[in-house]
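Database export, one record per block. Field names are fixed; values are copied verbatim from the stored entry.
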Amino acid sequence: MESIILIVIAIGVWLFFRSRANNSKKKLNYLMVGQHCFNRDDWQGAIQGFTKYLEDVPTNELKGKVSVYNLRAAAFEKIGKSHLALADLIKSIELDPNQLDHLYIRNMIEVYRDKDN
């Protein structure tokens, strides 16, 4: 009886870690699709990939999320949706106010605000 319980526990642990690995792969796939589309000037595809990545990444995982917001902002700008680009740039600064390209992003926010007015 004890061996059956141990087997059930082992299977449960294995399934738990397997599902976590699959979720990580799925997030990475969305990011790769977004980057691939971005590099090919497929702005809609890039926005979709980046959006799915951002939806799947937990809020507390800042690493990489800031740069994805910045990339999605650039894609939004390319299709003329400066108000959405502005929202993403503001979100990236909220997530990491100390990012290296902080001044550039602040300038871009002002450019987008001027476009919307």
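Remark 1: The helical segments are 2-39, 43-56, 65-78, 82-95, 102-116.
Remark 2: Confidence is low (pLDDT under 50) at residues 12-23.
End of record.
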